[in-house]
Design brief:
By secondary structure, the chain is an all-alpha fold. It has one domain. It contains 5 helices and no strands. Helix 3 runs antiparallel to helix 4. The radius of gyration is 14 Å and the shape is globular.
Length: about 100
């Protein structure tokens, strides 16, 4: 099954599998913008632990079905090259790197 991807990130296999198993989730996924899909993908792949990644995938499926269009409390994809990182996100990243 061909599933739409994001603007910067390609959809990883584990997220693609989870979406493909849930018809309501895949309909919701296909109904959001490429930028929104990119945020979900980046949020999912930016974690370090496999168990956190699994939790993010489960939450993505659940929250898409609830009508959410982007992950809550996420600073946004810092990998995009089409826009400059905002000053507030730059500050968050700076503080994160100094821990």
């Amino acid at each position: 099954m061909k599933i739409a991807t994001g603007t910067t990130h390609k959809i990883p296999a584990d997220l693609q599998r989870a979406l493909a198993l849930d018809k309501a989730a895949i309909v919701a996924w296909e109904g959001i913008t490429p930028l929104s899909r990119n945020e979900w993908i980046c949020w999912t792949i930016s974690v370090k632990k496999p168990e956190t990644r699994r939790a993010h995938i489960e939450r993505t499926v659940k929250e898409l079905k609830e009508g959410k269009r982007r992950p809550c409390c996420w600073i946004g994809c810092v990998h995009r090259k089409d826009k400059e990182i905002s000053p507030s996100v730059r500050s968050i990243l700076k503080n994160k790197n100094h821990r």
